[in-house]
Amino acid sequence: MSLDLSKKYQPFPSVDLPNRQWPSRKLTHAPIWCSVDLRDGNQALAVPMNVAQKLDMFSALVKCGFKEIEVGFPSASNTEFAFNRRLIEDGRIPNDVTIQCLVQAREDLIEKTVQSLMSAESVIIHLYNSTSPAQRRDVFGMEKPDIIKVAVRGAQWIKDRIGRLEAGGTKVMLQYSPESFSATEMEFAKEISEAVMDVWQPTPQRKMILNLPDTVEVAGPNVYADQIEWMGTHLKNRDALIISLHTHNDRGTGTAATELGLLAGADRVEGTLFGNGERTGNLDIVQVAINLYMHGIDPKLDLSDMSGLIAMYERCTGMTVPPRQPYAGELVFTAFSGSHQDAIKKGLTAYDKKRGIWDVPYLTIDPKDIGREYREVIRVNSQSGKGGVAYLLESEFGIELPKDLQREFGPLANDEVDKLGREVTALELKGMFWKEYIERSKPYALIHFHADGVDGHFSCRASLEHADDELRVIGEGNGPIAAFVDGLKMSGAPAFEVANFREQSLSAGTEASALAYIQIKTPGGKTCWGAGVDTNIELASIKAVLSAVNRFMARAFLNKT
Length: 561
Fold this sequence. Notes:
Blueprint: H1 5-8, E1 32-35, H2 37-43, H3 51-64, E2 68-72, H4 78-89, E3 98-104, H5 107-117, E4 122-130, H6 133-140, H7 144-167, E5 171-179, H8 186-200, E6 208-214, H9 221-234, E7 241-247, H10 254-263, E8 268-271, H11 285-293, H12 306-317, H13 338-354, H14 386-397, H15 403-420, H16 426-438, E9 444-454, E10 457-466, E11 469-477, H17 480-490, E12 497-505, E13 514-521, E14 527-534, H18 537-560
Parallel strand pairs: 1-2, 1-8, 2-3, 3-4, 4-5, 5-6, 6-7, 7-8
Antiparallel strand pairs: 9-10, 10-11, 12-13, 13-14
């Protein structure tokens, strides 16, 4: 990258639009959507879809709610032609869905396209030819009048054949694309578009689609928006047009270009699922649709089964959805950062209490709205904090750690994960908690416990395993736990008092397990948590006391060594 850029590259010229209106507008409704997965996406595949795969994808697109679907380039191959005929002859096209076919301005290709559409209920014939200076000069060796002649001649060939389709009951709409529009001079784009309009004679009652593609992103999305607004305000008979956008992603701003193009007055959007397409891809329609959704605008597409849509896409195309793909990627509702995890956990809890407007930190939409579950929101690795650890234990197993215990266990879990050097599952995390707290049986393990008492006066008898011997414990207190603590201290355990006690049920039913949490505090002010599980909450509490004492003694031993 040591080139003299002034000799090789130059800025793209701006559009003369001093009174542009699009920056102050707001999106209020969804555009007309047209999926071009079966054509634009298909031609970008190393191994194009076969008829069965295309049928599979077509059904999924219909289920999503697309009313216009570009099904292919029927003049390009027998597979493409056969697919059209299969859709039509098998009655696979719903009455409210229009199929679209792309065709170059060549008479033989137009004829074959028309043949592929015979007896369809509703179709769009999409004519295109390239218009940019580089295409005119280097690819076709033509001047502007010659390029206009190509477009006009193609438009006339289509017009001459419409009657055959309409005679069979087919409703026909016409679409023209000055391909490479975004790199074409505005005056020439207007001139060639109006030349095609002169042939087709659209009216407000029978409109044509003027598709203005950002075939290759050569400028910022604001420039594309200026181009769209310029065309919309300078073209004749604007009310007879449906202005359509077709953006690519060469600069990584396909979504931005589309949204700004809609602000600039466009009515319609062409794109693909997850942005599949040539080079860096087409517009990802999923992104724009859910961007509208998150602002309270009905996108008119059903994307509630995102996992099923991804599975279909990967099955049919052989492509994969990147893990960071907005909304669709595996990791987009995942937080590894501890502070993010804690914020998400608190935000979800607050939303569950109040409902209403969605406003959860780090989550732009509710994952449930696209078929995801909250358990996918947080995962744990060595960068995670107590919030993420606590969330997974609670969401997966119902283990509700007290906040102080979260602060104690979080770093311990992170140290274990750091040693593994990878993400851990919720089950592994539970295993770490069980090993650290529940399974602590040295130096004290409970063999038997019984307590009696009324009105705040209790006595207990217990037997413990200690140093391979049985230790008998007798104590008194204002409750079973206090009596046990009294007896334990009298039997030689370190001096301590119970600072915190919490209990919960782990499952419903008569065989439900109880989980108790105990925090002990020594005269020196040091604290330590323990936990115990049993079908009897009293026994779970006694086990929690022993867990805390065992952990405290193990920590004291480590500090000495």
